[in-house]
Amino acid sequence: MVPLAQAIARGAEAVAGSQVWLRTIDEATPDELSQCDALVLGSPNWSGMTSKMKDWMDSGEDFWEKKLLVGKVGAAFTSSRFRSAGNEQTLLQLVHLFMANGMFPVGLPWDHKMRVSSASYYGAASVGQPTEDDLALAEALGSRVAEAAVRIRRRELGEF
């Protein structure tokens, strides 16, 4: 599994009340998507998200048409081979998918690690193998996603 995905999962698992399912798009099922409170999508950067990711979102059981993702929290991550490859473009394309599906996108607030990391406000990222700072920010993103999802769930259950 991808190191950034594992770091995001670690961050999410550390939040009380969260449960993490780590899947590839080939493994994820529409039933799981309807059950989850949050979805973190990652795509290698190929001057944007991969065609496989776009196809999965466009034709995967009509997520948009059936409103399977409405009201869920979403976050993105990516990795590229070199710094000027367009990581932010890939992250923004994934964020666009969240918004088009009625999700609540979650990004990263400014952190001093961003000066040396590949991460951005739009999500976790790396250039080549992730650095310790990349992984720390990915873990922080996982925590933010889980915290937001837990808050939304509690509000829906009337616990606030």
Low-confidence stretches: none
Major β-sheet profile:
4 strands, parallel
Oligomer: single chain
Radius of gyration based on Cα positions? 15 Å
The CATH top-level class label = Alpha Beta
Question: What do the pLDDT scores average to?
Answer: 91
Q: What share of the residues lie within helices?
A: 40-55%
Structural class: alpha/beta
Q: Could you give me the name of the CATH homologous superfamily? A: Flavodoxin domain
Query: Termini distance?
Result: 37 Å
CATH architecture: 3-Layer(aba) Sandwich
The total strand number stands at 4
What number of structural domains do the residues give? 1
Structure report:
The protein is of the alpha/beta class and 160 residues long. It has one domain: 3-Layer(aba) Sandwich (Rossmann fold). It has six helices and four strands. Strands 1, 2, 3 and 4 form a four-stranded parallel sheet that branches. The longest helix has 25 residues, at 132-156. The termini are far apart.
Key structural traits:
alpha/beta; globular; Rossmann fold; about 15% strand; about 160 residues; four-stranded parallel β-sheet
